[in-house]
Amino acid sequence: MNKEIVIAGFGGQGVLSMGMTFAYAGMVENLEVAWMPSYGPEMRGGTANCVVILSDQKISSPIINEFDTAIILNQPSMEKFESMVKPNGEILFEASTILSPPTRNDIRQYKLPANAAAQSLNNKRIMNMIILGAFTQLNPILHDTSIMTALKKVLPERHHHLLPINEKALHRGKELIYR
Asked: pTM for this structure?
């Protein structure tokens, strides 16, 4: 198993923390992991992306130009990364922030109302966990318990009271795939 993922959006959308959660969860599951963040000089509002590789074999290089999965949270990221998804790969994208959805028909596309789902749970900051839940429903390579263990490492301790709502968000993301 080798899964190459790019996560991209605006700073402040949880792009890097989602990638870090993937990486820590992979380590909990004894996978080989690479996490490579990239962001502009502006932390909030600037563009951010990260590459995550999860594998059951040694990872030769974290620098890749094609991805199995793209998780896209804004239009500029869609324009940049849509063409970099491998044929038969997948794009998961936030419904409310993408004005022009993917145009390719050689990939699977999942338009997710993650912002709306996060608002229905009364916390817009859990949108990234909703998308992560959708990803794990489609790609059952990480267990929920590993993700929650990883989230305890990613979230500062002062935010650990938010772990239960994040777990709800993870499950809500899985439900979005069934709709």
From this structure: 0.93
Q: How far is CA 125 from CA 116, 120, 122, in A?
A: 11, 12, 9
46 SS3 class: coil
Tell me the per-residue pLDDT of 94-148, one tens digit each, with 9 for 90 and over.
999 999 999 999 999 999 999 999 999 999 999 999 999 999 999 999 999 999 9
**Residue with structure tokens 């890749």?**
64
Identify the architecture of domain 2-178 in CATH.
3-Layer(aba) Sandwich (3.40)
User: What is the distance between the alpha carbons of residues 64 and 28, in angstroms, rounded to a whole number?
Assistant: 24
Query: Per the structure block, which two tokens stand in for 167?
Result: 């777990």
Is residue 114 within 8 Å of residue 173, measured between CB atoms?
yes
Domain map of the chain by residue range?
Answer: 2-178
